Amino acid sequence: MATGTRDRVIDAALALFAERGVAAVPVTAIEAAAGLAAGSGAFYRHFRNKTELVDALVDRELARARDRVPPARDEAGSDATELLVTRLRADLDFLRELGPLIHILVSERRRNPELVERLRSTAFEASIESGMAEVLSLAPPRAVRDDPEAAAQVMLSAMVGFFLAEEYYGRPAGPVSAERFARALAALLTSGP
Amino acid sequence: MATGTRDRVIDAALALFAERGVAAVPVTAIEAAAGLAAGSGAFYRHFRNKTELVDALVDRELARARDRVPPARDEAGSDATELLVTRLRADLDFLRELGPLIHILVSERRRNPELVERLRSTAFEASIESGMAEVLSLAPPRAVRDDPEAAAQVMLSAMVGFFLAEEYYGRPAGPVSAERFARALAALLTSGP
DNA sequence: GTCTATATTTCGATAGAC
DNA sequence: GTCTATCGAAATATAGAC
Question: How confident is the model at residue B1 (pLDDT cuts 50, 70, 90)?
Fold first, then answer.
């Protein structure tokens, strides 16, 4: 596999970086995990250095995230809360898929301020906007109607906070499962019966 | 200053670790930032190695966080939402104070699973419990009464998520200020007029 | 493209003078 | 306790055979 190795290196690095952090993973460890001889410079046939690998990795994973098709919605016969729960479940799955990339982006944020700004001004703002539209379409309570933008950020922040606690603590941090969390959040954001 | 240097080293390391991550900061950089000659082993008169420094740093900062006295509440004449906003403001200030420590704990979580568990089983669970008590005492809407534990975790997760977005993006990530965020969250969790 | 081998740099850690 | 000096280990990166 001529060009397949490059992707194997990225795959190996993605897992190692997410686990230990970029700075703590030597190139030799990446080589080993990618099935190359550790200590051979084989890595350098594919990337000039570790920095360039990080860039390529982030580019590839962000593109992958962008291209991900949102699952088709089956809304028939559901009430507002139920619809929102479905969305929140999908959001959490998405975050979980992106988990390794997120850890890397966080640990590399100081070395890549332009990337941070790109994410903020596109992904973040788009999330708020779409969250606002969603929540407004679902018979929201007064608190949501009063400031839909802030309510959308509450929704987004809560999901991110839950996801990160899950990641940090290894498993659900408390007695509240993801499903129960999503239901509680959805119930707060919709009037319900 | 005999023992003062030790604390200066910890202070310097706290800032550097939070900024770049523990693994990426060499001992020489810590020495320089603490006013010692970079490359001299002066560091090793105070700590056996970097691992021991991390332990001492985390211990010191966690003790500092535990000893922090919560600001006295002045509740007279406030309604439920207002009381909760006050609490959320204080929570966010607390998180901001702990910012550097939080980054270090996150980046070191794989190397210190016992510490992670200690945090989960004390700080996390205590936060949920006290959040649940607080939110139940404030004329909550039906969604909160249905599952107060989950509602408390929504509150905690939202605050953590907001705080982390602020930290990651450098400043408020979107058009919603901390104050506006706290108001929206408090309004969702209380019936309010 | 991958290997063995190695040059080079950086970092962790210690010895000994002051 | 801090310094200069330095050793040894580990990591980055290159050279050249296959």
Answer: very low
